[in-house]
Design goal:
Elements: H1 2-17, E1 26-31, H2 35-38, H3 45-59, H4 66-69, E2 75-78, H5 91-100, E3 104-108, E4 117-118, E5 129-132, H6 142-150, H7 152-160, E6 164-167, E7 197-198, E8 203-204, H8 206-210, E9 222-223, E10 234-238, E11 244-251, E12 253-254, E13 257-258, H9 265-284
Parallel strand pairs: 1-6, 2-3, 2-5, 3-4, 5-6
Antiparallel strand pairs: 1-11, 7-9, 8-10, 10-11, 12-13
Helix pairs in contact: 1-9, 3-5
Length: 289
């Protein structure tokens, strides 16, 4: 116990006096679920709310997100604002139900005006994250998706300066409001055609559990697409057949995927320094050679 206490003391000392630098990197969370809909209505609103919270906590973590580290905690919601009718819900309702009322601005294809921003020209760097609504459940339409896809290079550049992106289900025809170019703003993402499933038998991976999610969060509603490759991201949860429902990860984004990012260098140095201080003190006490 004494030895462990001495090493921990070194950690606390260095943690208070040393400089811990963040390793800023792109943070991406994409899912075939539509929690922007189910956080407001559905069989498991609590689980959908947890999914929204886990995603936004991940992509806006100030240790990796340079904008959040600078004190910017607002995000940009990309959605159409024309109500398509039954079976869909304004994605703002789901985000508000998840605890984000007043924490975001909205951008659409430029037709609404007023306080709603024009996605053609909005400055992504004013936000800690971009959140893309789902197209089945939420209100994302082809017009907004086309703009996102056209601005892919800008989005990737924004991500690589430490921004975050959270995108929900893009199922396409016949159920979705989009028909082509799904997730085209991240060219390495491969999604199949629409696969609408009841959330039964889904399971969270160890990585998903590390984000604070559990199996109860990803069952009880519906999902609308799967992913057929990872693009360098980690799997968060899978369906009953083992197909990928959600991906997340950090690193440098390229056209071919997301590269891994090392631990923040200050934290690595902090750990090494702590061990050195601990060993030094043990040697002074004659407890180690």
């Amino acid at each position: 116990m004494k030895r462990a206490t001495l090493i921990l003391a070194g950690l606390v000392l260095l943690g208070g006096a040393g400089e811990v630098k963040a390793a800023f990197a792109a943070s991406v969370f994409i899912t075939g679920h539509d929690p922007d809909f189910h956080a407001f209505q559905g069989g498991n609103t609590t689980g959908a709310q947890h999914l929204n919270q886990a995603a936004l906590n991940f992509v806006m973590n100030p240790l990796f997100n340079s904008y959040a580290a600078a004190g910017n905690h607002r995000f940009l919601l990309v959605t159409d604002l024309t109500n398509p009718g039954g079976g869909y819900s304004d994605p703002r309702l789901g985000l508000n139900a998840s605890g984000y009322t007043g924490a975001y601005d909205v951008a659409d294809n430029g037709t609404t005006g007023g306080s709603v921003l024009d996605l053609h020209t909005v400055d992504f760097s004013k936000y800690a994250a971009i959140v893309v609504a789902s197209d089945f459940g939420g209100w994302l339409r082809q017009a907004e998706l086309n703009i996102l896809n056209t601005r892919s290079a800008e989005i990737i550049s924004y991500l690589n300066t430490g921004g975050g992106l959270y995108a929900m289900a893009e199922s396409g025809s016949p159920n979705g409001l989009t028909t082509s170019g799904k997730f085209g703003y991240l060219p390495f993402i491969v999604s199949n055609t629409a696969l609408d499933q009841s959330e039964v038998g889904n399971s969270v991976t160890a990585f998903g559990a590390s984000l604070g999610l559990s199996n109860s969060d990803v069952n009880g509603n519906a999902s609308h697409n799967i992913f057929t490759s990872t693009g360098g991201l980690s799997v968060v949860d899978v369906d009953a057949s083992g197909r990928i429902l959600t991906l997340a990860g950090r690193g440098t984004v390229t056209d071919t995927g997301v590269g891994t990012v090392p631990a923040p260098p200050g934290i690595v140095l902090l750990g090494v320094g702590s061990v050195c201080v601990g060993i030094y003190r043990l040697r002074r006490k004659g407890l180690v050679a």
